[in-house]
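Case study B.
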Amino acid sequence: MSGVGNEAGGWPLEDRGVAYGDGLFETVLVRDGTALLWEAHLARLSRGCRALGLPMPERDHLDSLPGQTGEGLWVLKLILTRGSGGRGYLPPEQPVPRLRWQVMPFTPQPTRWQEGVTVRHCRLKLAIQPALAGLKHLNRLENVLARGEWNDPAVAEGLLCDSDGRLVEATCMNLFWRRGGRLETPRLDRCGVAGTLRAALIDALPIAEVVAGPEALLDADAAWLGNSLQGVWPLARLDDAEGVEIKRWTVSDRHRSLQGEAHRLLGYPPGLAS
Amino acid sequence: MSGVGNEAGGWPLEDRGVAYGDGLFETVLVRDGTALLWEAHLARLSRGCRALGLPMPERDHLDSLPGQTGEGLWVLKLILTRGSGGRGYLPPEQPVPRLRWQVMPFTPQPTRWQEGVTVRHCRLKLAIQPALAGLKHLNRLENVLARGEWNDPAVAEGLLCDSDGRLVEATCMNLFWRRGGRLETPRLDRCGVAGTLRAALIDALPIAEVVAGPEALLDADAAWLGNSLQGVWPLARLDDAEGVEIKRWTVSDRHRSLQGEAHRLLGYPPGLAS
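Model:
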């Protein structure tokens, strides 16, 4: 089964979601009909609606969606667009947004939880746009181009810096590290997507949001990638954009702190053997 | 009649065009079944395909589209997406793009040709992303946000600077000015859309592509906006982002040079009375 979606199926030819990427999305982990980090997903969707001038969908309708899945693990993907209308880029004064959703079965990757992953730096630099920073909007060509930079399945993710050379995120995960005993993650006020797992971890642990270049990773005694679907992967190896190794980390108890908290939030096993 | 489109109608739920804005578009002026600046539109589409790693649609199929319109003036809007598939942001290795098109009647605005227009500076600054600069891709949230900054119909367009403060374009038109006897237009190697009329005018006239801040307009004895649908509008008045007047220009013979050439290319009347 490749998944099911809502009744109306696709998008009209003229929908502003495809014409301009004029909308937002969320991908939500659902276990046995219950959405994980649901309030964080709704909070980000609501922030996006305010930034784009869209009405937030009805809470009752949104709350009914995770229950449409069956037993087990699923991804619920929501896409909310500004709908049709307006004149060119000019948005309609009273937009009638379209909400579409799909659910697909989901299987996490326990080997990556336990053994960690290899990541590489991407050549593409993220553009700096504070008006859209942090939002999970539909303008994702940068992510597509960055993810297209490698096809070696042994490389799990690509790290992205902004055009000023500051660390931001990975193509679909947030980045965390520890140096000098301190947990840190990049500030996302200029670009990047502020993940819901990232928000929950910042609430739960003393994680500082910092401005840092890639040299921060060289000083780090542990580093992780995480999102609300996959949980947390320790970094085992970092390559440059040509695939040449820059650094290795031994995945060990040092990595349990952040991963343990993340997996508690998502209902996953701790991951690393004790 | 609001327009007709191609047989398949809309977009599947999972199309990458709506999911990520993963695609390109063109809006083409068609007169009596013949597309204007057609080679320039195809050249830009082809550049976009190379940048995004998409196969260019069949030339014969593309060439058949303008003839689907009737007599008179029409807009042909093409949208080309990467189609479905891939894993998340990772593009499919062999994408099967989707091409959809619509034609809608078009009426230009001769009053704006003759009397010129009022424009204002936008507050939003365009992000700098050389990997996407010049392309007419589907990630257009910046344009939507900028166009949403005003709703006074007396203001025809909004001017956009990049995050370094350099002039780039208007929300859906390119910008030209003359200072010191020289025709100039902003370089578009870091952001902005390289219009087909702009390309044709650079071929036909000695127009320099320059790096300039908004002060260039204060020194200009004439300035224009243009695109391949509307032709060329002289600037009559420039406001700041709060709507306060910065400068006025008398629309006169000085404006005929660029407009005359543009309208010759598009088959429009010269516009300004001699």
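The helical segments of chain B are 16-20, 38-52, 59-64, 110-115, 141-147, 196-204, 215-218, 256-266. The remaining cases will be described in the next quarterly update.
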